[in-house]
Design goal:
Layout lengths: L1 H13 L1 H25 L20 H6 L5 H34 L1 H9 L8 H19 L6 H43 L6
Helix pairs in contact: 1-2, 1-4, 2-4, 4-5, 4-6, 4-7, 6-7
Length: 197
């Protein structure tokens, strides 16, 4: 499974049109999520969907459910449906960008990561996002029956998701910066007077 997933990441990183499609799907799903969140707030006491509340505490979840007006639950279910796609597309984009930048600037490191199937690691955020979504939906569908375990799972998955997303976005920016420096240095060396003589 990891090999198949990594093969898809590598294919996206090597195929310009496919990379653009994945980027467009990530952006489009994010825009739809933002539209749903805007419509959701007036029906939820001004609160965002739980997925967008980064400082969420376990004690805040069920009181928010209690404040949902009619229609809020349906909007949340739509939000959750789109939020199945967004983390996948953004994770694939992130992993493919890292793969491309490493292949271009540090081929030895790239090959070691490919051999160990580690270029799928940026998709860990996707897994934690899906786990968070599943826990939120379970809690929402079961409400008003409350569970002590679900809020803990929601917050733990959220924190893991945010740690992964932040860490791998920083890694992507670092690898892109490194690739840009290597590319620029190579161009400067080739442009030096007398270099081609």
């Amino acid at each position: 499974m990891l090999r198949t997933l990594q093969d898809q990441v590598l294919r996206i990183s090597r195929t310009g049109w496919l990379y653009l499609v994945v980027a467009a799907l990530a952006i489009a799903s994010l825009l739809v999520l933002q539209q749903i969140a805007t419509a959701f707030r007036p029906l939820a006491g001004g609160m965002d969907p739980l997925d967008l509340q980064h400082a969420l505490a376990t004690s805040e979840i069920y009181p928010q459910f209690a404040g949902y007006e009619p229609g809020a639950r349906d909007l949340y279910l739509r939000f959750a449906l789109i939020d199945l796609g967004f983390p996948l597309f953004s994770g694939l984009f992130l992993a493919a960008t890292i793969a491309y930048a490493l292949r271009s600037s540090a081929p030895g490191v790239y090959q070691r990561l490919v051999d160990k199937r580690l270029l799928v690691l940026p998709l860990l955020g996707t897994v934690f996002d899906w786990l968070e979504n599943l826990a939120v939906l379970t809690a929402l569908v079961r409400y008003p029956v409350e569970s002590g375990a679900l809020p803990v799972l929601i917050v733990a998955a959220k924190r893991a998701k945010l740690a992964c997303v932040t860490g791998f976005n920083l890694l992507m920016l670092g690898v892109l910066a490194y690739a840009a420096v290597r590319y620029t240095a190579a161009r400067i060396r080739h442009a030096e007077p007398g270099r081609d003589q």
